Amino acid sequence: VPLHLPWIDAINRLKRERGAKIMAHSYQSPEIFHGVADVTGDSLALAQAAADCDADLIVLCGVHFMAESAKILAPGKTVLIPDLEAGCSLASSITADDVRALRVQHPGVPVVSYVNTSAAVKAESDACCTSANAVQVVDAVATEFGMGKVIFLPDRYLGAWVATQTDVELVLWHGQCEVHEKFTAMEARHTRERFDAKIVAHPECPPEVLAEADFVGSTSAMGQWLAKEKPQRVAMITECSMADNLRDRFPQVEFIKPCNLCPHMKRITLQNIHACLRDLKHEVHVPEDVAVRARRALERMLAVGR
Ligand code: 13P
Ligand code: SF4
């Protein structure tokens, strides 16, 4: 941490001078999450914060689709991302053409897309969701469209988990999160037995991992579960920084870390946040015709809430 302090001070100074708000996803490194962020949370919380933001300049410390969502929901603001290459294996698993082809194959069936998609894919969707509200959004869209079936994309594991929580029939895509797909059931079982730990898993994990979990939930739901259950020891089957960032809130809990880092999230560093604020780069743009349609899908999600 001492090594980080000069960078943290410099960023916080520049941030004040620029009147900027820094928003950081829970998968950002602790020095960013605790040191410089004004708003922290899961992708739903960041989307809500962008929609309500009173600053003219937003620095999104997360991956590209999150910065695009912020720009779509706050079109009058300047949205910067410290590294334009911060992508996501889910977002790159599907294109707008793929969604149009799915609609041809399943006429009249509404499309719910995870926010982990490009703006162009969101623009082809009826509603977006995050892992925090996927079940609620699927149910709401099915009711609104009077259909017992919904196309849910692009994460096949999140989709398979949502399918266990709803009566709506889901048509799935084959996207996977390159971080969560790596966890194995054996690793989860071993962690529980060896450390006598509770297992909490993100629904982007494969079904056999979720079957080993004491609790399956989104980034925000994991925090709520910890606050309620107060386990002595817990293993967070999700991105590595989650446990680091939760540690402060739950000093009585011992975190066992079966750790997978998201290489895209980790492209964001104190150094490139500083350069981002200093040089006002890299600005995220979404073409207006795409933004208008994507905004409708995102706003339908925000109307459902958590
Ligand atoms: P949320 O739980 O914030 O939706 O995020 C999961 C994820 O993998 C984000 O990239
Ligand atoms: Fe995408 Fe997975 Fe990284 Fe989240 S953790 S940004 S879903 S690759």
TrEMBL record:
<dbReference type="InterPro" id="IPR036094">
    <property type="entry name" value="NadA_sf"/>
</dbReference>
<dbReference type="GO" id="GO:0005829">
    <property type="term" value="C:cytosol"/>
</dbReference>
<keyword id="KW-0479">Metal-binding</keyword>
<comment type="pathway">
    <text>Cofactor biosynthesis; NAD(+) biosynthesis; quinolinate from iminoaspartate: step 1/1.</text>
</comment>
<protein>
    <recommendedName>
        <fullName>Quinolinate synthase</fullName>
        <ecNumber>2.5.1.72</ecNumber>
    </recommendedName>
</protein>
<keyword id="KW-0004">4Fe-4S</keyword>
<dbReference type="GO" id="GO:0034628">
    <property type="term" value="P:'de novo' NAD+ biosynthetic process from L-aspartate"/>
</dbReference>
<dbReference type="GO" id="GO:0008987">
    <property type="term" value="F:quinolinate synthetase A activity"/>
</dbReference>
<keyword id="KW-0808">Transferase</keyword>
<keyword id="KW-0411">Iron-sulfur</keyword>
<dbReference type="GO" id="GO:0051539">
    <property type="term" value="F:4 iron, 4 sulfur cluster binding"/>
</dbReference>
<dbReference type="InterPro" id="IPR003473">
    <property type="entry name" value="NadA"/>
</dbReference>
<dbReference type="GO" id="GO:0046872">
    <property type="term" value="F:metal ion binding"/>
</dbReference>
<keyword id="KW-0662">Pyridine nucleotide biosynthesis</keyword>
<dbReference type="Pfam" id="PF02445">
    <property type="entry name" value="NadA"/>
</dbReference>
<keyword id="KW-0408">Iron</keyword>
